[in-house]
Amino acid sequence: MKNLLGGKGANLAEMNLIGVPVPPGFTITTEVCTVYNQKGKDAAVSLIKSEVEKAVLYIENLTNTKFGDKDNPCLVSVRSGARVSMPGMMDTVLNLGLNDLAVQGIAKKSGNPRFAWDSYRRFVQMYGDVVLGMKPDNKEDIDPFEEIIEHLKEEKGITLDTDFTPEDLKILVVRFKEAVLRKTGHSFPDNPWEQLWGAVCAVFDSWMTPRAIYYRKLNGYPEDWGTAVSVQSMVFGNMGLTSATGVAFTRNAGTGEDIFNGEYLINAQGEDVVAGTRTPQEISIIGSKRWAILAGVTEEERAKNYPSLEETMPSLFHELNKVQEKLENHYKDMQDIEFTIQEGKLWMLQTRSGKRTGEAMVKIAVDMLAQGMIDEKTVMQRIDANKLDELLHPIFDTDALKSTTLLAKGLPASPGAATGQIIFFADEAAKFEKSILVRIETSPEDLEGMNVAQGILTARGGMTSHAAVVARGMGKCCVSGAGSIKIDYKAREMNMAGKTFKEGDWISLNGSTGEVYEGKVQTMNPGVGGDFGKIMGLADKYTRMTVRTNADTPNDARIAREFGAQGIGLCRTEHMFFEGERIKAMREMILASDTAGREKALAKLLPYQRSDFEGILEAMEGFGVTVRLLDPPLHEFVPHEEANQKQMAKELGISAEEVKSKVDSLHEFNPMLGHRGCRLGITYPEITAMQARAIIEAALNLKARGIDARPEIMVPLVGTVAELKNQADIIRATAEKVFAEKGDRIDYLLGTMIEIPRAALTADHIAAEADFFSFGTNDLTQMTLGYSRDDAGKFLPDYLSRGILKQDPFQVLDQSGVGQLVEMAFTKGRSVKPGLKVGICGEHGGEPSSVEFCDKVGLNYVSCSPFRVPIARVAAAQANIKHAK
Ligand code: ADP
Ligand code: MG
Ligand code: MG
Asked: Catalytic residue positions?
């Protein structure tokens, strides 16, 4: 029904069917909109003219009025409604059918000239704005009607709209119409039929405005949906003190509390409640009292000036309460409703499932399950997995946010809220108790500083930039690619929004929105209460895939386990090479001129690696831990600034020139496609051997302590089976050697990442040498699309805003392109090895639509950063419920 009648029209009809009082009306279907867009106005109008006339007659009969009559006119509203609500697409026109004669008729019939002229004034204004194009093109220009209103208020010395007399309102109507004639060259239409068709066509036109087109593109809604138009007889909340209008929620949309709440205004119409010109009042006594406390209003003042509907119109409040209960029970979801009271009679004007916060989403779903309204599978479908993020990170106090200045906007790279003092160099992050690390971009050297800082802000880099990926892994707030900020490392200052900020100045980051604020903003910890746990329990019940985590430290592994991760899908070993003494040994290894020199340095690294692996395998006891062998190009481990090179030369006891020439020799034009991954292990087999030894020894040590360690050794960046075979031989030989030395064995798996298109294409060959595949979809995306992850930031935003790409392929798996490679590699791999274990460890492993894709393909597991584990668990369960159907 929604497809034809739009969300609004369908729900109006449905409310009417279940006996909720709705003003009579009819809806012109979305199909007519399509005709209008394809064949033009005349074709659409002639198609529906006689039906619309019949429908108007039907309204006239039910309301005992006549459309266009001067004594007893029928007034209607014209409302737009797409299948899904499209904010700001088109405004409603109210009180349509009025003209200079009909307004007299209404005044006489109601005995309330003020109401009649107030309605007429509103109509001319709305129709002028919405249909006749009187709204200024520029945001900065004032609405001509508002200007006229302001002038008249000045002339009369009044401040509130409600202080206008009927005479004043008459003057407004005259002046409004003059303004219309001046601007459009046409007089305001007096003929109600002309008005009606004008409004209907304006709604159709609104479907093709640039704003609507942009919104559809953004959300992937097709153009041929079209919008419906509902024409409905008016009910009036502006008829005096026994009339009112309001909006309400059947439960609290912020907290999920099961309590009916909303706002209303007496003697008001339409959007007055949300327009902010008058202070709206709460509908229930409880709500009203709570509001008064927050607003600092005394109980006496509240009761006198801002009483609740429950107090002013108790019987209507109870009637409304019954209706909201009925609606919620009918739709079995929290409803956002609009109502109007006309001279003591209640009318419902809209109902829809209400938007809500992550916290409310969880609570409402769990409560409704307990209340027997919905079943477990429905609960799971009600959870917007991405929204769970809100529950997992600290957040800003919303009240505190209101009084701060927005300085810049970047990408919401890693959610959460952070406040701290600006620091420009990672190694100085501990200088302040709370620091925000601000960098043009970060590099692996900055790791420790990033960990110490409260949050990270970068001027360059996208959602998969180093800063973003590492921050998400750490569960640390990060805003990346805030292009408008200018950083001067030398002067230790930066410029944002025209202001200069020095080291030590306070700023705040919202990693969920990408916003950067001035000064300290209070943060709070969101409550991850029992309801959240219940959702997680259901997720496990309905899932097929398991969820692993990407973790490089025992601490990350423990956090992820608490969030329900069952294993590690990606443990990056390179991060283990940066701390303290390790980087020295690493650099020694890089600088060594022969195998013996490298082996000597590697022997120093071995104990560090072994103990890291022990920690991680222990933290994940009983679950598989996939350890990726060294992956990044070696230049990332050596300093590029002269001063640091000198320092390194001193530490290693060699000349600065030697260091410099080695660093220069490591230079590559395309390091991401250069000497990295298994290519390193092939040129330097001793690196692979050392890492394999460290992993196997760690597992044997744990076994000796009675701990169930399950290592899975993963070879990165394989493109041909020969590469894998080469590395596998080294790993297996090393393992056997260690087993012999220790006189004990353990089971381990040996597999590879599938991240080079050629590996996907030849997956049947590769599977012969592998126990498992793990799709490294970051690199696979990079290489399939030919976008460098590090440089795509220069054009991706353009691609997205022009609709060339619907989504950032580094965030949301490109299912039709990269996805084909995933599917093909999966099928080919399983064709030669039915028991092949297959997972995904790219950033996509925590993104719900990509998780759904992985379930459809048939992967065993997805792996994502620790803080996204709960999201992936829910997404995996949702996918299974969907695909199991
Ligand atoms: P939106 O899509 O922006 O919510 P609506 O079509 O719901 O627009 O209209 C906005 C407001 O106009 C409604 O909330 C209601 O207060 C008022 N309104 C719409 N139709 C009528 C009507 N027939 N009688 C009285 N008020 C109406
Ligand atoms: Mg509405
Ligand atoms: Mg990779």
From this structure: 466, 841
For residue 845, which amino acid is it? G
337 ligand 1 Cβ < 6 A: no
In the chain, the percentage of residues whose pLDDT exceeds 90 is 72
**Identity of residue 664:** D
Using CA positions, which residue lies closest to atom 26 of ligand 1? 270
Strand boundaries in 454-496, DSSP class E: 455-458, 477-480, 486-488, 493-496
Q: Which of 92, 207, 355 is the best mutation target for the ligand 1 pocket, counting ligand atoms within 8 Å of the beta carbon and taking the most? A: 92
Residues 376-416: pLDDT tens digits?
999 999 999 988 887 887 788 877 888 889 999 888 888 78
Is 256 close to ligand 1, i.e. is its CB under 6 Å away? no
Whether ligand 1 lies within 6 angstroms of the CB of 350 is answered as yes
Phi then psi for residue 548, to 5 deg, are -105, 180
Rounded CA-CA distance 394/21 in Å is 44
pLDDT of 464 reads 62
pLDDT for 312 beyond 60: yes
3-state secondary structure 266-327: ECCCCCHHHHCCCCCEECCHHHHHHHHHHHCCCHHHHHHHCCCHHHHCHHHHHHHHHHHHHH
Position 274 scores a pLDDT of 64
CA 590 vs CA 125, 651, 685: distances in Å: 75, 14, 13
Residues 450 and 476 sit within 8 Å (Cβ to Cβ): yes
462: which DSSP letter?
A: -
User: Tens of pLDDT along 562-599?
Assistant: 889 999 999 999 888 888 788 999 999 999 989 999 99
Of 77-91, 328-342, 820-834, the one with minimum mean pLDDT is: 77-91
Q: Which residues touch 798 (CB under 8 Å, ≥6 apart)?
A: 804
What is the residue with the minimal CA distance to atom 15 of ligand 1? 270
Half-sphere exposure of 587 (CA within 13 A, CB side): 28
pLDDT of residue 775: 98
Output the six-digit token pair for 154.
């000045």
> Which atom belonging to ligand 1 lies closest to the Cα atom of 236?
25
Whole-angstrom distance, CA of residue 573 vs CA of residue 630: 6
417: Cβ contacts below 8 Å, ≥ 6 apart: 393, 394, 395, 396, 477, 508, 509, 510, 511, 512, 521, 523
pLDDT of residue 526: 59
Q: Which two tokens stand for residue 737?
A: 């050697």
Alpha carbons 779 and 498: distance in angstroms, whole number:
38
Tokens 């769970």 belong to which residue? 388
Ligand 1 pocket test, candidate residues 28, 338, 348, 355, most atoms within 8 A of CB: 338
CB-ligand 1 contact for 349 (6 Å cutoff): yes
Identify whether the C-beta of residue 47 lies closer than 8 Å to the C-beta of residue 31.
Answer: no
Q: Which long-range contacts (CB under 8 A, 24 or more apart) does 678-684 make?
A: 678/629, 678/715, 678/716, 678/717, 678/718, 678/723, 678/724, 678/726, 678/727, 679/717, 679/723, 680/630, 680/633, 680/634, 681/629, 681/630, 681/715, 681/727, 681/730, 682/723, 682/726, 682/727, 684/598
The pLDDT tens digits for 199-218 are: 999 999 988 887 788 778 76
* C-beta of residue 380 within 8 angstroms of C-beta of residue 874: yes
Rg (the chain; Cα; Å): 33
Predicted confidence band at 524 (pLDDT cuts at 50, 70, 90)? confident
When pLDDT is cut at 50, 70 and 90, the band that residue 460 belongs to is confident
Mean pLDDT for the chain overall: 92
**CA triplet 586, 591, 594: central angle to 5 degrees?**
110
| d(C-alpha 18, C-alpha 444), whole Å | 62
pTM over 0.85: no
Per-residue pLDDT band for 528 (boundaries 50, 70, 90) equals low
